[in-house]
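To: structure desk
From: M.T.
Subject: fold request, one chain
Message: Could you run this one when you get a chance? Sequence is below, nothing fancy, just the single chain.
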Amino acid sequence: MSNPVSFIFSGLFVILAHGAMLMNIFFNGNYKNTGDLALLAAVVIGLDILFYIIMLFWKQNTYTVDFMLILILNMSTIFQASFGGVHMDKDVIKHIITCIAAIAASRLGFWLVRDYRRIQNRRAYIWAGIGFLMLVILVCCGRRSIWIDLGFITIQPSEFIKPLLVLACATSINEQQHKHKFLSFNIVWENVILFGVVAAVCLFQWWCRDLGSIPTFAAIYASGFLLRICYPKTKFSKKTLIAAISAVVLICGVGIYFAPDYVRARLFVDVWSDTNGDGYQQSQALIGIANGGWFGKGPGFGFLHNVFAHENDIVFATISEEWGLLYALMMTVVLLFICSSPLIFPPRSYFHGTMCAGICAAITVQMALNIFGSCNLIPFTGVTIPFISAGGSSMVTSGLMVGMLIAAQNPVFTKVKKKKKQGNSLLSPLKQRRSA
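Reply: Done. Structure tokens follow.
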């Protein structure tokens, strides 16, 4: 590792941060016996130490995002285990398992995209993967649903489209200089295909009544689209840009016009005039944030744990009520630091840069939708906060994308094999004439 001192202090910082949260529960929290708290502490600190040991044998240029990942994952474990009182029930155990799965997924994402040529040469599989997941949703999820219920676990296939869409945007960057004349436009056919895929995904999400995920997919595509405009020597046509923006505005207008009644109701609902109906969750979330103040009512002493989806859809408000707005903002800062890591450790290829932009856009938009929806600044979407909200598919997908983010800061470039010289047959005609 390049800086052993930084590695050691980063690990100690993570352990001390989690230790401080556990001490807060011990002195200010709601727990029936110390056994549950001791078990929670053993799980959190044990996972910290195990992660630290594994990273010793994992060679990278930088480990900053890795430590931020374990920091935010175990923060979420502590939050989830203390809502309404410290407990280690099956839901908390499931959350711990999904956190471990997210770490494993991050290692998979790291391995997949370190060598951009390997993923670039297999981009056909990326397009096929998006189509396959849409087919799975159509066949296995039932009519207008997004979940596959296996009994012991539910899977949301649309979550796994997000990293594939990020890679689709990144792997098509090299095609920007291959323009073709069509009518009066200079176009890149792969851009047209990508726009069609994104439009199909968004329409499919609308059909499945999962409108909250559409802004995330749109943000991934928008980041890739902007980097296409900035691609060296692209000379992106203004007419094409205007046409693309017009198409997006038209699609948004049509989507809102034909949106289900409950969606349009959320756009114009006054939460305080309908506290028992469509405005129930948001009104309760606002009351919880206000009651928590800066330092909270104490872990486990809140009311929001009685509200539906307190652990995922309004998790920001639940944390604010029990732990305080200060803790909730600290959690947000950690996620923003993960997203800003490409600015501190810049990617070394345009492919990795585009990939990082798509990942950061997805995480930031998804987090903003949840927080702003809970605070009634935008219509309530029901989107989860990456790594904080309970949920298996979202947790694993977020871990995979963060692993891709880490890979962009630790890339591998395959060396081109040099051809062996084969005597005079490789000499230039000029040298052959001179030798004659």
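Reply (cont.): The chain has a mean pLDDT of 82. Let me know if you need anything else for the meeting.
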